[in-house]
Amino acid sequence: MSREQYTIPTGSQQTFGAGGSSGREYAADSVGTVMYYTCGDCAVRVPLEKGAPIRCQKCGARVLYKERTKRCVAAHPMVQFEAR
User: Do 27 and 49 contact (CB within 8 A), yes or no?
Assistant: First the structure.
């Protein structure tokens, strides 16, 4: 199939980046959402919003680790995420 023959798939399932979306729908849902990361150098908990520079506010390091999920490990020993 050539590039000219390709049509963008459309469907009822809305996902970020699918169907030629510019990401505006995703950005509207995540306004004010804060994710917490742990600094790799000083182990401080760093809050980051979407679009914020990835840098520790205490030591200035750029290595941040995402915190583990808060899901109950006793009930579900394995947490599986779908990646595309």
Answer: no
- Domain range holding 45? 33-67
- Quick check: is 50 in a domain? yes
Is the residue at 37 inside a domain? yes
Q: Where are the beta strands (DSSP E) in 1-84?
A: 34-39, 45-49, 64-66
State the pLDDT at residue 20. 47
- Residues 9-65 pLDDT 10s: 776 555 544 444 444 444 445 566 899 999 999 999 999 999 999 999 999 999 999
Domain-located, residue 82: no
Cα 43 from Cα 31, distance rounded (Å):
26
Number of domains comprising the chain: 1
